[in-house]
From TrEMBL:
Molecular function per GO: alkanesulfonate monooxygenase activity
Keyword Oxidoreductase assigned: yes
GO BP, sorted A to Z: alkanesulfonate catabolic process
Domain Luciferase-like: 27-329
Protein name in UniProt: Dimethyl sulfone monooxygenase SfnG
UniProt entry tagged with the keyword Oxidoreductase: yes
This protein's UniProt keywords: Flavoprotein, FMN, Monooxygenase, Oxidoreductase
Domain of life: Bacteria
Species per Swiss-Prot/TrEMBL record: Rhizobium oryziradicis
Pfam family, one: Bac_luciferase
Length: 368
């Protein structure tokens, strides 16, 4: 039995710490970006069986997201409101220096019994960097900087006296005390050659945009091959983005999807499409995130509809297992109405997933 098949899938949800919800549409979204809503949501997610929450990082308004809470401090607030949930704080190299982030995360880890992780985002929104006066590096240079950033924070957390002579960062006998409790997990995103190579060298987790099982399998196989090439000593785990629309009937679920798309905000979707297509096509092989996304895909920011978790609880659970067979270790979910739908998902979908996992494990043992 493969390691991926043997381990239960992890589940995460997008933290709505940015206004506008998770779709660029005028459809009703009973979701709020304020702290009271998000504290309650974190508690519901924890009670419903979710393992992680992923906060978002945005510095400027755009594409339906007019207001944004900063991710690291917001993540700390959610950790303070929960007991088991792990929270992943998204950060951008450039605006963050690794010394600052390493110190922030070490402190939060001490305050929350080691439940904080980080998602290193290499950057897709050029206008955001221009607005805050940060240099906008070429695509592969952004990933080179992110890799050095990850090596720096991990070194600061694990070495008593950290030294680095890099192309982007320099450290001289730098020590952080206290260290984090345990080792914070390092997540990253991206679909380009540079992103997958970085994952295969240094990251604990690789997030990819929504995709079919076949598309996901191709990415996972590529990372596994590169891990061997680079001599990585641990397995990169893989998370896939998805947007959940789970209803009693398939017709109801598809009707919601159709309404989301019919009520898409054209100017905002087209603006987002222009920005991310530039980012996706900026990689040398033109295969970065969003390089092949359609306008309909981009009504949900990270191609979440493409994972097809849209239907009845039974259909969605079966499709989740299909993504697991393709190599997924974690399903990252967005919803229209977060509090009520996270609870519904935990009550009606997660038990089915666990039952299917148990059946597959028994069948695998019987076949050995």
């Amino acid at each position: 039995m493969s390691q991926t098949a043997a381990e239960p899938l992890k589940f995460a949800y997008w933290v709505p710490n940015v206004s506008g919800g998770l779709v660029i549409s005028s459809i009703e979204q009973r979701t709020s970006w304020d702290i009271d809503y998000n504290r309650k949501l974190a508690q519901i997610a924890e009670a419903s069986g979710f393992d992680y929450a992923l906060s978002q990082i945005r510095f400027t308004a755009g594409y339906g997201a007019d207001s944004q809470h900063e991710s690291v401090s917001f993540s700390h607030a959610l950790l303070a409101a929960t007991e088991k949930l792990r929270v992943i704080a998204a950060v951008l190299p450039g605006p963050w220096h690794p010394a600052l982030l390493a110190k922030q995360i070490a402190t939060i880890s001490q305050l929350t019994n080691g439940r904080v992780d980080v998602n290193v985002v290499s950057g897709w929104f050029r206008g955001e960097f221009a607005a805050i006066g940060e240099p906008w590096l070429d695509h592969d240079e952004r990933y080179r900087r992110s890799e050095e950033f990850i090596r720096a924070i991990r070194g600061i957390w694990t070495e008593e006296s950290f030294n680095l002579r890099g192309d982007f960062y320099r450290f001289n006998d730098y020590a952080v005390k206290p260290k984090p409790i345990g080792q914070p997990q390092v997540f990253q995103g991206g679909s380009s050659r540079a992103a997958r190579d970085m994952a295969a060298r240094v990251s604990d987790w690789y997030f990819t945009n929504g995709n079919t099982p076949e598309g996901l399998r191709a990415q996972v196989d590529d990372i596994r091959t590169k891990e061997k090439t680079f001599g990585k000593s641990w397995r990169t785990k893989v998370g896939i983005n998805s947007f959940g629309i789970v209803r009693e009937t398939e017709q109801e679920a598809k009707a919601v999807l159709n309404e989301i798309i019919e009520k898409a905000i054209p100017q905002a979707v087209q603006g987002f499409h222009h920005e991310v297509q530039n980012a996706g096509n900026a990689s040398p092989e033109r295969e970065g995130n969003w390089a092949k996304s359609t306008l309909e895909d981009l009504v949900q920011y990270n191609d979440g509809f493409r994972s097809n978790l849209i239907g009845t609880p039974e259909q969605v659970a079966e499709r989740i297992i299909g993504l697991k067979r393709a190599g997924a270790d974690l399903i990252l979910l967005g919803f229209l109405h977060f509090q009520e739908e996270v609870e519904y998902f935990g009550k009606h979908v997660l038990p089915l997933v666990r039952e299917l996992e148990a059946n597959e494990a028994q069948a695998s043992i019987a076949a050995e």
